[in-house]
Amino acid sequence: MEPADVLAGLDPEQREVAQAVRGPVCVLAGAGTGKTRAITHRIAYAVHSGAVEATGVLAVTFTTRAAGELRQRLRALGVPGVQARTFHAAALRQLTYFWPRVIGGDPPAVIESKLPLLRTVCRSVGREAAQAEPRDLAAEIEWAKAGQIYPEDYAEAVKKIGRTPPVPAEEMVRVYEAYEALRRERHLLDFETILELTAALITEHGEVAAQVRQQYRHFVVDEYQDVNPLQKLLLDTWLGDRDDLCVVGDPNQTIYSFTGATSHYLTGFPVEHPGATVIKLVRDYRSTPQVVALANRVLEVARSPHRLSLVAQRPDGPEPAFTEYADEAAEAAGVARAVRALADRGVPLRETAVLFRVNAQSQAYEQAFAEAGIPYLVRGADRFFERPEVRKAVVLLRGAARSAGADEDLAPAVHHILSGIGLTPEPPAGGKAREEWESLRALAELAEDLAARGAGLPGFVAELERRAAEQHAPEVEGVTLASLHAAKGLEWDAVFLVGVTEGMLPIVHAKTPEQIEEERRLLYVGVTRARVHLAVSWALVRSPGGRPRRPSRFLDGLTGRPARVRASAPAPRERRTVAATVSCRVCGKTLAAAAEQKLGRCAACPVDYDEALLERLKVWRAAAAKEAKVPSYVVFTDVTLQAIAERAPASEQDLMSITGIGRVKLERYGEAVLAICRAAGDQTEDA
Predict the structure, then answer these.
(1) What is the C-alpha to C-alpha distance for residues 588 and 524, in angstroms, rounded to an integer?
(2) Annotated binding residue at 36?
(3) Residue 31 in marked binding region
(4) 79-82 CB contacts, 8 Å cutoff, 24+ apart
(5) Which of 114, 481, 523, 643 could form a disulfide with 138 if both were Cys (CB 3.0 to 4.6 A apart)?
(6) Which residue did the predictor score with more confidence, 498 or 557?
(7) Annotation-wise, does 659 bind a ligand?
(8) 460, 349, 637, 620 alpha-carbon torsion, rounded to 10°
(9) Proportion of the chain above pLDDT 90, given as a percent
(10) 32 known ligand binder
């Protein structure tokens, strides 16, 4: 690949990033502005132009999946020799390599979680600490270690900054000391210690420093606003006295300060590196102008001098919707109806997300979606490749691959294996069985995609193992339920931001101006996850008769009304979004249930319809779904087919009058459905 080819298709600012091949370089990249594209093309341009050697570049990010994406893009750009890793993976590789030579013996084992050690510690340090949630204790230790705060300094440090520990500070010191003593006694490493020891090896052993710095001469750090002091220490150790460093980040997406992350390293980069090249990416290619305008307004009142104002590049879309509900159950049910309506209009469920402030809010939506028959997955639960059904499937597939003949047909072989552990032609109604079915179906669809490219069973298993290592899960057909923190870095066609009330967003324990501004940035992150459809909602009470709630202060001035004055008096009522009423076409009664509204009648009202027509519609739907490789309900739900059979539409206007059939569905399926209905009518007349 020629250097000029690497620059093709980049916008002016991305091209400027790509051509800034020597550091120090600071890229301030807003949401959806193509930062990954910019930095991967920068690395590729530098290599292809001869400015750097591919093996001398270390690109660092924060998640295994992000590192895998960097490697994949760099391979596509013709530079597979670049190392792209997380901080921890890069450090562990160096630590494991140098430990036998410098320290001697085998390196300590790495623990995935602090919880087993902390449970042992809590039993030994006293009743009060043992009453605390071990996860809270683990998070506090991680915060302290990320900030280079040792047990002997902990009590003074939290007092100085006004931090509230999960147990009294003196108890926390005892837990922290006991945890570190037990970890060393058992010859174990946690993630923070990996970074700390790697930095120490490089600092204290000249031969280690020389070899590391000879190997890596050019550094790129993604998501630099999320760097904590310990990671910064390691990065500085890698660099030594050099400054060939490119950092990329968005101060508007700094939402992890509770873990020790700080945007000060990003915003202060030009001060730390005088003469640094600073480039801003503000062209938003992800979201519609309507979504971008709302995102900009969310931050208009922010005090940050580093705020990036995004400029939308996509065509117009619908305006964001703001809806008030009576209580949380009504909000969850309303969101479920809206999700189903979007699905009927052609928005895939896997391209829809419901985002909330805390994980406890997930339960109401899990229940509402289960009752509505809408599949979903909870992000932050088991990783895809760690789910029992997926692990079992991979074991069976691996065994089959070892004995498979060269001429084995991939897709049928995979379907045969997966059908033996729960993959059926039609999905279960809901619950755990539906989640497991969706996992197996995702594996089957991936096999079908690879089979179309000529892959066999061994190649399919190799692809699964690569994806598992990079946490690159195949797409699962279902709505994503996730916290705002877990949603960072992701995007969907449709996003529902729910529970946007005072006490939840901002969260009740956010007290200082800095904490409130971070909560505002959380809302900004949520808004910028949406490509086209965005809905914001809140409930006036948690449950009927409960304590009243107010819409979040962050919505002031965003919902079509002026910002309210914050005072002790009750806030003015938010304007509601009210759905138009639908009456039964048989008895005239107002319909409340979504299914009844779609049918246009009460479920109990008698109605005549052509059963043969309904059956022909179902056969057609199955064929259309198979051709599109989607579940049947994505084409049309059973209720929609029932409504079509009952009304036997004769024109596009008739078809559009059925609730849930919009312009997208009409263009995609209208002609076929009307032809089936006309054929049924002709047969009736002949009879």
Answers:
(1) 44
(2) yes
(3) yes
(4) 79/43, 79/44, 79/47, 79/48, 79/54, 80/54, 81/53, 81/54, 81/55, 82/43, 82/47, 82/54, 82/55, 82/57
(5) 114
(6) 498
(7) no
(8) -40
(9) 49
(10) yes
